[in-house]
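[Meeting: bench + compute handoff]

Bench side (C.D.) handed over the final construct sequence. Compute side (W.E.) agreed to return the predicted structure before the next meeting so the bench team could plan truncations. Sequence as handed over:
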Amino acid sequence: MDHHSSSSTFETAMPRLIACLIIFLPIIGSTVTGKPSYCSRVADHFFPCVTYLIEFEFKPEDGCCGGIEELNKMAKHNKRAPENICQCIEDMDYVMNVPFVASRIQSLPDECRVHFSFPISIGMKCSE
């Protein structure tokens, strides 16, 4: 892929990603957990990782690894928290309609030097 086509893809995809998040995230949050702010909090912590997971960035942004650490803290609050976090991320990915790259998902724990306390994968099997 040449630099020009990568740049134009980024220029057209990123505004769409942001618009989808602004419009649909409050709806998703209230649907998934009954708490509009829960998925919004998940998105705040996870969104800095998205550009890495969809291969727009070579390394995760500064806020990504810190966000994963915050999500790990949230995951320890109750037994269903890891599944709820996963579901929020799955819904965010679905709304953005830009798939995460499997190799990037697998490399994120090493890049951030952190273990995930919640499931995340291409299939997003949140209940397992």
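W.E. noted at the follow-up: The chain is about 70% helix and 0% strand. C.D. will use this when planning the next construct.
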